[in-house]
Give the backbone structure.
Amino acid sequence: MYSGTALAESVGLRLQSIEAQAGGDFPLFAGRDQTRWQCSPGGSWVGGFWAGCWGLEYVFSQQPASAERALFWSRKLKAKLSLESVHSSMIFAFGCQCPLRWCREYAVDDSHWLCQRAASELAVQFDSGLQCIPLGSALGGGDNGKASFSVDSLAAVILLLSGQGDNRLVRLARRHTDVYLKHGFSAGACSSAMLNVDGQWRCQEPGDWSRGQAWGMLGLVVASAQWGAEYKVAAREALEYWLSSRGTGICFNRPADSQSQTDPSACLIAAVAMLLFSRQDTSPQWWESGQKLCQSVMGDETLSGAEHEGIRFTGCYTQLAGGKQGHAETPWGYFFLLLSAALLDGKIDTLW
């Protein structure tokens, strides 16, 4: 029988093992066939998920040490405040704002300040010509970064900018979202990236990348919670598109590619979107579909190991060392594994 608490305890053991190996650095990834993690002092774009993992571990364990770890790793993200990338929203929404919410009784003043400062720094990057916060040149954004839009961070942008009690920041989050709805969203299908060329947005094929579709779903569900109306309609369409194109089994990274590998992490992000949307929409299908997606991941070969030894999740299909693509352990994989379990068990209800 499924037990979120047992799963969280096992993931907690794995987190301890990873932390010991990282030696004070942020863990980035470990390939499926690797025993050593790639780590970095700054955490790249996944550092926030590492702090968030400890916050979610605390949600289950209620152990002060877990809360203190979460807030310790959150404070280490301070070095990313000036990062010229929209992905700084992912770092601070999932690595600072969420842990602060879950571990509030252990928070100190600088934890609140860090979220506010991160939101202010992100707002500075808003481009009035594009009417959004572009991808930016850091973290691999490159030469086109200042004219690009990435769906990966849509939910995080809304969460971070809307979570500070500042109406100006909320308006920026909504304008950012509106650009995506107008140009990157088509009948439920979510484009993973857009590039503005001479004032015109050119999009990656909507719906072709499973994790991009899942990120879009999560962003639109968060937008729906914030503003309702057309955002709720779009969120429902995006969730329906997932179910019609991918169902509730393990999805392929790119379903149209006959050589594509699976990406269980995309299933977890999609499941979180559905479980969150079930709080907004009375239809039972969203809770049931989210639950089925989680069950599919729990039965997948990328989740392995004995619970009492620390379970290992290698279900993130991503870029590895040397530019190769493959399945890996990642902080975001463990974050969404724990988050889906917390939602299913009623440990938390929302991200906002």
About this structure: The chain has a mean pLDDT of 96. The chain is about 50% helix and 10% strand.
